[in-house]
Amino acid sequence: MSLPFFLSSLIFAAAFFLIVTERMHRTVIALVGAMLMVVVGDFFHFYEPHEAILSVDFNTIGLLFGMMVLVVLLERTGFFQYLGILTAKKTKGNPWLLLVSLGGLTSVLSTILDNVTTIILIAPVTIIIARILSLNPTPYLLAEAILSNVGGAGTLIGDPPNIMIGSAAGYTFNTFLIHALPVAALAWVATLVFFFFFFRKEWQKKPVGIDRLLQMNEREAITDPATMKKSLLVLAGVVVLFFLHGSLHLEASVVALLGAAVGLLLIQAKDDPQQVLEKVELSVLLFFAALFVLVGGLEHAGVLEWAAQFILSGAEANILLTAIIILWASAVLSAIVDNIPLTVAMIPIILTLAEKGVPVDLLWWALVFGVGFGGNATPIGSTAGVIAVSKSEQTDQPISFLYWIKTGAPATAVALLVATGALIAFHFFEVTPTHASQSEIPTMPSTQNHY
Amino acid sequence: MQEKGNAPATHNSCPACIEDLMRPPVIIPIGTTLKECLERMVKEKRNSLTVVNQDGTFAGAVNAVDVIREVLPDYLEEDVIAVRFADDALLAQDAQRVADHPVESFMARDVPTVTLESSLVEAAVLASVKGRGRITVLDDHRRPIGVLTRTEIKRVIAFYLGIPGALD
Asked: Where are the domains of chain B?
């Protein structure tokens, strides 16, 4: 074990520990860790500053930033609340249909937009509707958070780990639609079936106040119809471009940034975009960038190569078993720790295996579903869960830590069983993405520029 | 009283100092419930109350906005769009839910205070910067002895501008 190996591992471990224990803000820790890695790496000649910059996946950062801008433009218009009220009215207050509809709405929105923002905006109208109908809001909040994570695992842009994995693996939006979305859809159905039985007493309740629900005019939620239409138009264009970005050889980040630029042009060309940019989570983007730099230091010190060796023999002997282990292990870890640093750490390991000739497509999907579904097991496993619990605390039925685990853990297990079946099917039916050309086969970021 | 057009008096010779302008505080002890606070506000026809510790020293202040914030759940306050769909029945339920909350859970602690020796200028700045309509006047032992409101400060400014009846 060389000195760079030891030092880089120490820095990463310390940063990771502080991030997961939440003693300090994760962005600050990641930034300090990243700078420390660069300084130490430069001093001991294993990681120079220009290599640190190359380690940052700007495709991921750009895609996140672009989509954040689009969400900010849309959320101000009341569109999310409009959809929430409209959807709820269609159920005429039937408790089970209300869960399916609101859960479905949140999932669908989460496949395109940031699921944290979706939950933040849908949760208040959910609670109001539940209270008007004299229903317990808990099942609805739980379902929305859990199903948003399940849905978000189905597309390239549905959650940040998918963005990073897609960028590293060279998977396009359509690759995720073909491989991940059907699995997410099946997991979604399975999770709903679980909810049906788990909350069966809730479906016996006769809601009151249905007239009050039906009298709600969802159009009152729309604060700015013109901006809403423009935002949706831009979003539609972005989604169409996502379908085509592989064929057009456009990076996903270019599509998102193009959408953000056009959105700002159409909606507030004359105003200072500062008020929009203030709501973009720059802290999150900085966190991502710092993590990439941290992990880049591990890569240059040979730590990831060493870690990959552990998996290599297993992967060569039985790739399916290795994938299933990655699925469940990353799910368990995601339930406890932030899945972003976990994903950032796993990506270079899988890329190293790819360089050694291991067919890693199954491992990528295992990671997608593991980090995507695993966070539902505990209330701290995903930001959507944290928000749902926080909103519930001001109702008469706050969601306790234990109650979430009683619901979320089995729901997660159900989704993971579906994912396990999918991996088996992928393996035996050889359902793997094809890369259009040799140059699209992924390599480590430091050796190939993805941007 | 100064004549119109003369230079404003310094606080050492002001026509109405804090002691002259302040009103007696309505005092409640720590532990008072939200419902009890509202009962006092309604009975005394006041929108703010002064909260004291067991030993009579100043602990904080609570006004009508503090009460409203305590009643309203955060998820309504944070979403001005969703709140359009909440009705009065929900407000009644939320009020019931927090009726027993002790005042120390929703009172303001970082409240501007002055003493009898402070100037009105200082009081005016505090009222402006801190954004609270009432400034508590404390004695040397940090016990509340009066409340200065924006009304009083407004009247002094009106006096300095020569508006008749400002300090009547």
From this structure: 13-160
Q: Which of A121, A131, A220 sits opposite B84 (nearest CB)?
A: A220
Name the token pair of A132: 């008007």
Distance of CA B121 to the CA centre of its chain: 17
Interchain CB distance below 8 Å, A221 and B75: no
Number of domains in chain A: 1
Find chain A residues with C-beta within 8 A of B96's C-beta: none
Residue A118 token pair: 């979706």
- Decide if A370 contacts A165 (C-beta within 8 A): no
Domain range enclosing A208: 3-440
In whole angstroms, give the CA distance from residue A166 to residue A327.
Answer: 17
Best probe of the B interface among A76, A83, A89, A127, by most B CBs < 10 A, is: A127
For each of chain A's 451 residues, which pLDDT tens digit applies?
789 999 999 999 999 888 878 788 889 999 999 999 999 999 999 999 999 999 999 999 999 999 999 999 998 899 999 999 999 999 999 999 999 999 999 999 999 988 888 898 899 999 999 999 999 999 999 999 999 999 999 999 999 999 999 999 999 999 999 999 999 999 999 999 999 999 999 998 888 889 999 999 999 999 999 999 999 999 999 999 999 988 899 999 999 999 999 999 999 899 899 989 998 888 989 999 999 999 999 989 999 888 888 777 777 789 999 999 999 999 999 998 888 888 988 998 999 899 888 999 999 999 999 999 999 999 888 889 988 998 998 888 899 989 999 999 999 999 999 999 999 999 998 766 644 333 344 444 433 332 2
Question: pTM for this structure?
Answer: 0.83
Q: Could you give the CA distance from residue B72 to residue B90 in angstroms, rounded to a whole number?
A: 10
The complex's ipTM works out to 0.72
CATH fold of B13-160, please? Answer: CBS-domain (3.10.580)
* Six-digit token string for B3: 């004549």
Q: Å from A94 to nearest chain B CA?
A: 19
